[in-house]
Amino acid sequence: MAAPIRVLLVEDNQVFCEALELLLGLQEDIEVVASVGDGNQAVPAVREHQPDVIVMDYRLPGIDGVQATRAVREAAPNIAVVCLTASANLREVDALYEAGAVACLSKDQELDEIVAAIRRAVGARAA
Fold it and tell me: Cα(88)–Cα(96) distance, rounded to whole angstroms?
């Protein structure tokens, strides 16, 4: 069996973060290696935990998801970023893609869709 996909969560809503961590932890091929609640903590967490994929919120304290995605992609270009947001308009979603996100999903999407996006992100990262 291949090594699990290492995921870092960058999410300031503690309840949502814990629920997502629990649900992703049920997947045999995904391991949540850490979670942080502030955009400024994303790059240090990447350096410490070496994830394959980051699941990034858009609205964060410190720097927002666009700035955090850009910073992560500059610091570690081989890490894929999947954005997960409760509310982002089209301009904000475009900015996330421009910053280097490989997917942008709504927090109310089915878990299967979020998991599939994480799995696809690993493939996009390898391409």
Answer: 10
Q: What percent of the chain has pLDDT over 90?
A: 76
Instruction: Identify whether the C-beta of residue 11 lies closer than 8 Å to the C-beta of residue 17.
Output: yes
* CB-based contact 32:25 (threshold 8 Å): yes
Q: How many CB atoms lie within 10 A of CB 109?
A: 12
Q: What is the CATH number of domain 5-126?
A: 3.40.50.2300
Q: Quick one: pLDDT band at residue 86, thresholds 50, 70, 90?
A: confident
Q: Kindly give, in sequence order, each residue whose CB lies less than 8 Å from that of residue 44, ignoring residues fewer than 6 positions away.
A: none
Rounded distance between C-alpha atoms, residue 110 and residue 32, angstroms: 18
* pLDDT score recorded for residue 87: 76
Report pTM. 0.93
DSSP state of 29: T
